[in-house]
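Appendix B, record 7
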Amino acid sequence: MIRSITQPKAEKEIDLLLSGSGRIFIIGCGTCVTLTRTGGEPEVRAMQEQLSGKGKLITGHLVVPVACDNLTADALDEYGHQIDQADTLLIMTCAFGVQTIARQLKKMVVPALDTLFIGKETAAGEFSEICTQCGTCIIGETGGICPVTTCHKGLVNGPCGGTDSGKCEIDRRKDCAWTMIYNRLMDLGRLDSMRRLQPPRNHLGEPTPGKMILS
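Structure tokens (predicted):
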């Protein structure tokens, strides 16, 4: 299952962002941040205790089912009185969830987490980036293996000169992405694809902010 991977902001940064705010309502999420243990019920309660210990008044807390869903407004309505009493919402969700809640409530919002990447759980408690959503996908020519996310250097033409016995020079425990691509294409009888020189990667493949209109 694909998830937004997040990590907690430094305590000092959260303190700075909440400077001048005395009444806080905390919001977590029941999906991605619950899985990564950065914004589920235990983390929300721990944050409540932490801020209360610093003299903040916590007017309430809530873990919504899906923070990035517009239906979140229905869950927030049930806590309207407690939210109204707060001057700031501390939101322990991905950036998408923060923005969704900000659009629905006329309150100052403060993110408690940093959103790192879109990832997949590859082992218990371990998440690996699978797509940077760069807008210039070349996996049709690399056997379905993305070199932008799999290669530490993000090389679209490889391997580099540092690969050694199929391992990455940056992380010797990691298989070289381009060795994996070579082996996959060889098994498929498509090594000719690897001989095509990819043009320099377009880091602005999709204009910012991105937008798609279906006709």
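Remarks on this record: The two ends are 29 Å apart (CA to CA). Residues 47 and 53 are 10 Å apart (CA to CA).
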